[in-house]
Amino acid sequence: MLEVRNGGFETTVQDYPGRIGMLSLGFAPAGPMDDYAFRFANVLVGNLPGTAGLEITAGGLVIAFQDERAIAVCGADMGARLNGQPLELWRSYLVRAGDLLEFDYLQGPGFRTYLAVSGGIDVPPVLGSRATYLPGAIGGFEGRKLQAGDRLPLGEPMTDPAQAAGRRVPASLIPSYSGYNEVWEVEATRGPQADPDYMTAEDMAFFFSHHWKLDAASNRTGYRLDIHKWQWARESGGAGGGHPSNILDNGYPVGAVNVCGDQPIILCIDGPTLGGFICNAVVAKAAMWKLGQMVPGWSYIRFKEVTLEEAITLLKQQDETIHESNLERS
Amino acid sequence: MTEHVTQPSGVILARFPERNGRPGVVYRNAGDSFLLVEFGEMVFDLTMSFRVLGLDDVIKRNRPAGLIETIPALRSILINYDCRQISVRDLIDFVEDQYEHLPPFENLVVPSRIVELPIAFDDKWTREAIARYVQYQRADAPNIIDGTNSKYAAMYNGLRDEEEFFRYIMATDWWNAALGFFPGLPFAYPLDPRYAVVLPKYNPTRHWTPAGTVGIAGPCLAIYPVESAGGYQIFGHTVPIYDPLQRNPAFRESPVLLRPGDRLRFRPRVTDDELEALIQAVYDGTYQYVIDETATFDVGAYLRFLQEVDPEAKAFRQRQAEAAARVPVP
After folding, report:
1. Cβ count near A231 (within 10 Å)
2. Is residue B125 domain-shared with residue B236, that is, in the same domain?
3. Is 0.90 topped by the overall pTM?
4. Parallel, antiparallel, or unpaired: how do β-strands A61-65 and A2-7 relate?
5. What are the distances in angstroms from CA A135 to CA A188, A293, B92, B288?
6. Which of A21, A25, A242 sits opposite B256 (nearest CB)?
7. CATH code assigned to A183-320
8. Which residues of chain B have a CB within 8 Å of the CB of A137?
């Protein structure tokens, strides 16, 4: 059992890859915004990489443990302390009943951090997943973010917690996060409605070179970027509507860049599944984690075009990287 | 016969012309986890939905390893796949093969439930959403007259008054071509073209719409399953179509009431107080949704019906076009 003393800014139970196979009913997959840090945290404590853990956004979480477990915190530095002692990120620890884990707020670059506990968070799966999907108020702990007083059940650890503790991710595999006002390079392929049918080649060249500012009004459903006057390849949206960004509604890929009128919005893992605006690019699955560490209102994004083949290679490399055999004993 | 195309931009992966009366198909790159399959031209043609749902059905029944799910829409299917298990080329060949062997759609008889939903028109919830929009977002919106959208809707479609508009909503069945955007949100189109009203969208979009609101934009009717932003003209309220807590037997299998291929029928018309009692009964578990589970839809018979009513439908479209030309858009 985990006892929540303070839920912090926004802490949710997530699993990976989330609620799969429900897009056609309007459910986005949910899951961790930064699946790289999330999966590595699980591997560190001896869990399968997708096991349910906590996504801590911006910080403020305080929890008490009631069992002996291996834990790991991966992601942004929120000055985590275990019984008052600083806790290193990307490293596994042993905790005992009565231990207190406290997160402060962001200490540097990055926006989210992940807590994995050996055995995982054992909330009941809803529609096949333990991931919290906030827009649908479903999954995780009562379909909502955590608050003081919540008690989260834990699953049975697959490995001895004492064995799983004391390991770390080698420095070469810990990503460095771009700081405030700095640019994140995000790999993306062209999307289903790019040039030449919907946008001009110039529009796409601008898209792949501009440093897009991430709007403060961004969250797990969507990342809003700056307004831009596109040239457009069409005069209007035809049967889809008056504006050339309109189309007859179709399914939206997770991670698509959805251009609504003049504004591009990256559809994140809680985002809309279907709609009537064009998608001119799709973030590579292997690059989705970067969105999780950007800071709304501060970060900039440059989309780096990759081919479909390159995106697949990146994904395979990432799967190989997030593996127990790459851990070190500390 | 597979005919792969590579555009300089790499967006179109394959393109097939119309064959034996079957609409052409375009396969569009949608990132490393999605493939967009588009049929015919971008025109509003409801009969395309029957083909799409027919094909979607056989794709699901014969799904190859690596095909995760399909997201059908009016004239497209978005396929979610695992690029580590199946290549996009093999996926395209698979879909083409299924499309090739799809029976002529005039002979299709597809399962299509009939779902009856009570409706209150210009109800207190809708009025509240519109009042907030006027107060906080736009006071001079031409689509708001006397605190409603229904008077505008009547004018825009050349109808006498809002009462005639409401009768039109109740006079036709609504074909649910797709679910999405939010969990369980139907994208429903009028099956009887004599009552096919059309409306422009809000500008700017509303920040708040209560769950249960019924609205229309373009030819498409939507029911808002959760409290959310929205762009449709709104004029009615119905019982819940989404319940994450699954409090009524209708939600026992899934928190989503509707499915693609359902027909929605609005009846009976109720007052605000009556509807409030019905909503309470839904959550008490005592309300019984009126759903014909075994109904089927005969595409051939429907096509004959379209021919029969074509003169009346044309006359209505003419009247609509003349009216719309005299009415300002938001």
Report:
1. 12
2. yes
3. yes
4. antiparallel
5. 26, 21, 33, 26
6. A25
7. 2.40.100.10
8. 226, 244
Q: Is B78 on the interface with A (CB under 8 A)?
A: yes
CA dihedral A51, A309, A228, A246 (to 10 degrees): -80
Within 8 A by CB and 6+ apart from A78, the residues are A56, A58, A59, A103, A104, A105, A106, A107, A113
The range of the structural domain enclosing residue B124 comes to 111-326
Q: Give Cα B235 distance to the centre of its chain.
A: 17
| Whole-number Cα distances in Å, B309 to B31, B192, B266, B315 | 43, 8, 21, 10
Contact A191 B29 (CB under 8 A): yes
Give me the phi and psi of A12, to 5 degrees please. -135, 155
Which amino acid is present at B55? L
> Does B69 contact A249 at a Cβ distance shorter than 8 Å?
no
Pairing of strands B263-269, B114-121: parallel
Number of domains in chain B: 2
pLDDT of B1 over the 50 cut: no
The candidate with the shortest Cα–Cα distance to A77, out of A99, A91, A64, A58, is A58
Q: What is the distance between the alpha carbons of residues A323 and A45, in angstroms, rounded to a whole number?
A: 12
Distance from CA of B145 to the nearest CA of A (A): 23
In A216-273, the DSSP E strands lie at 222-224, 246-251, 256-260, 263-267
B32 touches chain A (CB under 8 A): yes
Where in chain A do CATH 2.40.100.10 domains reside?
Answer: 183-320
Same domain membership, residue B79 and residue B173: no
Q: What is the ipTM of this complex?
A: 0.97
Rounded to whole angstroms, the Cα distance separating B263 from B260 reads 9
The pLDDT tens digits of the residues spanning B279-304 come to 999 999 999 999 999 999 999 999 99
Give, in degrees to the nearest 5, the angle at Cα A31 between A30 and A32. Answer: 130
- pLDDT value at B59 more than 70: yes
* Contact list, B76 vs chain A (CB under 8 Å): 248, 250-251
Query: Token pair of B146, please?
Result: 């006397």
Cα(B285)–Cα(B176) distance, rounded to whole angstroms? 25
d(CA B200, CA A239): 12
B7: in domain: no
Alpha carbon A312 to chain centroid, angstroms: 19
CB B11 within 8 A of CB B20: no
